[in-house]
């Protein structure tokens, strides 16, 4: 099947280096300390952050830093066919672990010892790149909750089909069996914190694909910064400043 | 990076500081170089498809079994490959019995990605009757001793077990060729799996100082490390999988540097695996020859009549 037409257009009409439309909203879950909805094309993810609060399980309390917990689940209606087991299966466990460790790298946990930060991420619509959308949503939710962070973590995926590196794969391109590289970076520090790849790819081509994904992450970081400064302006306005 | 359970072994601050400051000068606690692997040895069990790997103090066993099942609906002429991990509390007190914890799931998925998604094992040759019967290969990985770097050891165990596994030969028979006859190993020699390439996992540990990284971390180094990356590559120059699940951020240049080191390490480990497997195969073939072959060397210095009766007895055995 042809994923990149001879004119250079993908299945959904994008160019190979073009990302899907981004849309984000902050403060959607009123009860949570911080929350956000992040959309990348048709993929829609909601994240809620509770914390820092008292550790519920005393035996897990860490005396010198905050405990970060994360739970990833996909809603039953998020994919085409209704899912039978949205959480607790191996993929969800792995992605929960990945998101937790990624966010732990950027949260300044040393400032909040003996406390707990919970990150709940749920996929409402899945169309490829759910992992990346979850990390972006979690970053926004943590910023909304006012949790001190070293830097944002933004994430984007890239692939390689029909000998072309493609940015931000959707579900059809992802299930084509080609390589899928998901990268999460700390944009200001320019460091890679999350890197996952599956399927085969030669080393030199991998470098190009990773570079493309990093560029995508930086673009998302600009967008997130814009959303947060707009949100702060709104808060100032409401406070009468 | 610590495990989150009450009975986790916690390192003292002194030990942590010692390991970290030693690494700043490029020294590792067990005397290795920064990019050196521990001693890797692979032993095989009596049955085909079982392997035990020792990587320094880490011990992992891999078992491969097969079963005839119905194929998935969207892949009617492909067999399946599934990996199950067993983190026994015998290996590490922080492993709980019962449901696999997060690290067990992660390990299983990393090895699964390296083997399945990179098409190392040929699944189309596992099909017997398209849409009806295929072989499902199941790899069980048991962790016996956690001395650090379980992913690499488990990967080698899985590969060694896959390379020495033999599945029974089947043929189609019956009236319309739809009946499948599975031949027992005594009747027809079982067949090996078709493995296109060997994806080898190489794990790096990053520490809070940017320029420090080590290959094949031990249990102590894992307790001190700030981040970890596992790169699965084969000797054809392909990267099969990468897993860097968060942790300390590293620059892109460091990642490319790690991948290049991993390529050389993967070549060494591949050679080692292939040599051991070949030795096992030769020994296995020799074992078969001994079963059927004739002359049993006898001790000439024994008593007269008994000698002849023994020789007569051994002839009876060899003729069956």
Mind explaining what this structure looks like?
The complex is a heterodimer of chains A (241) and B (320). With 241 residues, chain A is of the alpha+beta class. Chain A is built from 4 helices and 10 strands; from the N terminus they run ββββαβαββαβββα. In chain A, the strands form 2 sheets. Chain A has a 5-stranded mixed sheet with strand order 1-2-3-5-4. Chain A has a 4-stranded antiparallel sheet with strand order 7-6-8-9, sandwiched between helices. In chain A, a hairpin with a 2-residue loop joins β2 (34-40) and β3 (43-54). The mean pLDDT of chain A is 92. Chain B is an alpha+beta fold and 320 residues long. Helix content of chain B is 33%, strand content 28%. Chain B is built from 6 helices and 14 strands. Chain B has helices spanning 13-24, 102-117, 150-164, 219-224, 252-292, 304-318, and strands at residues 40-44, 50-55, 58-69, 80-87, 127-129, 133-145, 166-167, 170-173, 179-182, 191-192, 200-206, 213-215, 227-233, 238-250. In chain B, strands 1, 2, 3, 4, 5 and 6 form a 6-stranded mixed sheet that branches. Chain B has a 4-stranded antiparallel sheet with strand order 12-11-13-14, sandwiched between helices. Chain B has a two-stranded antiparallel sheet with strand order 7-10. In chain B, a hairpin with a 6-residue loop joins β11 and β12 (213-215). The longest helix of chain B has 41 residues, at 252-292. The radius of gyration of chain B is 24 Å and the shape is elongated. In chain B, 38% of the residues are buried. Classes of the chains: A alpha+beta (241), B alpha+beta (320). The interface between A and B is large, with 41 and 39 residues. β9 of chain A pairs antiparallel with β14 of chain B, so a sheet runs across the interface.
